Amino acid sequence: MKQYLLKSLLQIIPVLFLISVIVFVLVYCTGDPVSLMLADTATDEDRRILIAALGLDQPLYVQYFTFIGHLLQGDFGKSFRYDMPALPIVMERLPATFELAIAAMLVATVISIPLGILSATKRNSFLDVLFSGSSVLGKAMPHFWLGIMLILLFAVELKALPVSGRGTLAHLILPAFTLGTGIAAEMTRLIRSSMLEILNQDYIRTARSKGLFESIVVYKHALRNSMIPVVTIMALQTSTLIGGTLITETIFSWPGMGQLIIQAVNTRDMAIVQAAVFVVAFLVIISNLLADILYRVLDPRIKYN
Amino acid sequence: MKKRFAGIGLAAVLALSTAIVGCSSQPTTTTAPKQEQTSQGSTAPAQSDSGEKVLTFASGNDIVSFDIHDHNNTSTEAVHVNMFNYLVKKDRDQKVQPDLATSWEIVNDKTWRFKLREGVTFHNGDPFTAEDVKFTLERIAKDQKLLEYGNYKQIKEVKIVDPHTVEIITNESEPVLLNRLSRLGSSMLPSKYIKEKGWDEFLKNPVGTGPYKFQEWKRDDRLILVKNEQYFGDKPKWDKLIFRSIPEDATRVAELLTGGVDIAVNIPPSDLDRIEGNEGTHTATGPTQRVMQLTVRTTPGTVTENPKVREAIDLAIDEKAIVDSILAGGGTPTRTRVTPGNFGANPDLFGKALYDPERAKQLLAEAGYPNGVDITFSATSGRYLKDKETAELIQAMLGEVGIRAKLDLLEWSKFNETYKAKKFGELFMIAYANSMFDASLAFDRITTERGKGETDYSNPEVDQLLKDAEKNMNLEERAKQYVKVQEIIAQDRPQIYMYQMNANYGVSDKINFEPRLDEMLFADEITKK
């Protein structure tokens, strides 16, 4: 276990290095920040001065090594748009994104656990078909469409919830629901199949044959064991959530990382894009690692060699 | 079994602790007092619970920065004007009025003398003096790295005559100096504060002389300004201004419909009816400085080198139809880029369009292309209001007369790269604004020198007129020179102007709001009903 942990931690270094190359090259290839920054009236001379000031006249590899050199000192460069160091700007947005991601996860859990259990225990019943059907729908529904529909219904028509922004708990409900639905759909199906598998195990049959109440069999024996894969999936989903709130944050103008990344891409604010992708990548790696460990702790049959 | 129990327990603790971290970090980032937050919910914002007068705006993007010299963004300036003052300001008719300068005179061709208002203080209490004028204007006139440098390098130096008098000395004679000083990049900065505390501190806690002072800025979320009780002018009308950034159109409109904001800018034409039909909101529309145009190559070897082909393109396009069908009426056809409200405007060419498809076909035949011509037509997608739809309609209109345009729709940054590299084909569509409110800026790309590689247009008469007008301190004669240039361009067509674009606003019925030509959002011009 210790060896496995050490190995995993060491693997993070080349992965992050690879990410740095990819991010750098991609950002470099996709657009010219100087054109976007200068006014229509700028002359070629103005342009040349700005390019030199930003260090963009250097060869690509020189720019990359400068970038990496600064990175090793924890310096992600300066945001063109804000004229401030990029990393603090990104970190400033993390709490908002975390808040949304956790709320979405809560929504997903609250929906999926009862639905998953009901589907499994009432297999092939009307309810099972209904829930399976809606989980396909929930998975297929695009976030932007669902988000706008929720705004139209709950904010514009019913005037029950605020349209956008962040602040109170009420602001959190619609975006969390928008984001949580897709995950809930995925988790419902997972819980259902995991539960079905467990319900077919010998020890459940034994428990039933001993004459235990069905609810005790389901909730005490089956549920606990069927949660093992669910917990790991939750950990994995949390990581994708952090990077995946882009559209939802834009719709609800939620001031998190997703919105920051979209704005930064639009303005070719390289430093912000690089810092944000790095932070997201780091979080994904860490939560994957946590998921692995969790899985190992929950189910001792799994060995890492 | 025990171990499994422990595992689930561990997972629960982990999940819970992240939740707590997530939640507990919220108050530290949302520094706004609780009361403000609740007032932004579904309650009407024009009057919050505590009875204070709050005005809430929603725009498509956040302000760029508080570095007033290092951006060129009209929507950022629209917010800044509530915090900062210029030496001179433009009123609603775009006439120059005293602001921080009470009077001015031309000493000689290259020297202007300004008398400064006395008793003005910055939000931090520093008095406003000639030192601040020198500091502000010399910074932008000398630092080449600043994005507005190009518009201020004409200033050579600022001489302090006494604490309330300055002389601005320019490199050449400078007839548009007042226009320069009444626009973005000319906000007066507190020199003492910046010298003592540093630029970074200023960017975090900006200080101006304006009617509203900085309270809080949460990037990509909201900027909050509060009333400046010490303002030298009329008492500010609002207790608090909130500028919210809501990039998604549908969300911005929904916020307006539910009363979450009082004014929403940049409303898509398709949503105008909904806002009008909704109880409690209406729309407001007004002309802007932006003109949509086609830039045409006159480069030898291209089909558009032939003036008859260029004229045919002009005659093939029905500008009125574009404005009516795509922009829901939000625009005015024009044959010049210097629209009313600008110095040197030519009213004969405004509000007019030439549409004559039969004559266009005839011209093509006369030019030697009875079977039509093929051209490349590049346009942006998503940069201007309905640009993609407009380009597609233009392509169809050109096709009607036999001009087969290969339409190349580009995302803005890609478009911009090709644009700056001057690599477009016969035709590209772009919209320019004019923050200088002067004809000189409009003809920036028309001269032989600047047109090289783009239009390759060269007309010695135009060059001479523009050169003379640039430094002409006889304003009457100068205006005539620009009027003449517009006539020549309308004839030669290196650029074909199509329509002036309107700005659409959604407005709450609780307030009175009239859009300005310069798109500035002066809070004190907006009143409660």
List the helices and strands and how they pair.
The complex is a heterodimer of chains A (305) and B (529).
Chain A: H1 2-30, H2 33-37, H3 44-54, H4 60-72, H5 86-121, H6 126-140, H7 143-157, H8 169-199, H9 202-209, H10 214-243, H11 246-251, H12 257-266, H13 270-298
Helix pairs in contact in A: 1-13, 5-6, 5-8, 5-10, 5-13, 6-8, 7-8, 8-10, 10-13, 12-13
Chain B: H1 2-29, H2 34-39, E1 54-59, H3 74-80, E2 88-90, E3 96-98, E4 101-108, E5 111-116, H4 130-142, E6 155-162, E7 165-170, H5 177-181, H6 191-197, H7 199-204, E8 212-218, E9 222-227, E10 240-245, H8 249-257, E11 263-264, H9 272-277, E12 281-296, H10 307-316, H11 319-325, E13 331-333, H12 357-366, E14 373-380, H13 387-400, E15 403-410, H14 412-420, E16 427-432, H15 439-442, H16 448-451, H17 460-471, H18 475-492, E17 495-508, E18 511-512, E19 527-528
Parallel strand pairs in B: 1-10, 1-11, 14-15, 14-16
Antiparallel strand pairs in B: 2-3, 4-5, 5-7, 6-7, 8-9, 9-10, 11-17, 12-16, 12-17, 13-17, 18-19
Helix pairs in contact in B: 10-12, 17-18
Domain ABC transmembrane type-1 (chain A): 94-291
InterPro entries (chain A): BPD_transp_1_N, MetI-like, MetI-like_sf
Subcellular location (chain A): Cell membrane
Description:
The complex is a heterodimer of chains A (305) and B (529). The radius of gyration of chain A is 24 Å and the shape is flat. With 305 residues, chain A is mainly α. In chain A, helix 5 packs across helix 8, helix 6 (126-140) crosses helix 8 and helix 12 packs antiparallel against helix 13 (270-298). Chain A has helices at 2-30, 33-37, 44-54, 60-72, 86-121, 126-140, 143-157, 169-199, 202-209, 214-243, 246-251, 257-266, 270-298. Chain A has 13 helices and no strands. Chain B is α+β, with helices and mostly antiparallel strands. Chain B has helices at 2-29, 34-39, 74-80, 130-142, 177-181, 191-197, 199-204, 249-257, 272-277, 307-316, 319-325, 357-366, 387-400, 412-420, 439-442, 448-451, 460-471, 475-492, and strands at residues 54-59, 88-90, 96-98, 101-108, 111-116, 155-162, 165-170, 212-218, 222-227, 240-245, 263-264, 281-296, 331-333, 373-380, 403-410, 427-432, 495-508, 511-512, 527-528. In chain B, strands 1, 8, 9, 10, 11, 12, 13, 14, 15, 16 and 17 form an eleven-stranded mixed β-sheet that branches. Chain B has a four-stranded antiparallel β-sheet with strand order 4-5-7-6, with helices on one face. In chain B, strands 2-3 form a two-stranded antiparallel sheet. Residues 1-44 of chain B have low confidence and may be disordered. Helix content of chain B is 33%, strand content 23%. Classes of the chains: A mainly alpha (305), B alpha+beta (529). The interface between A and B is large, with 69 and 69 residues.
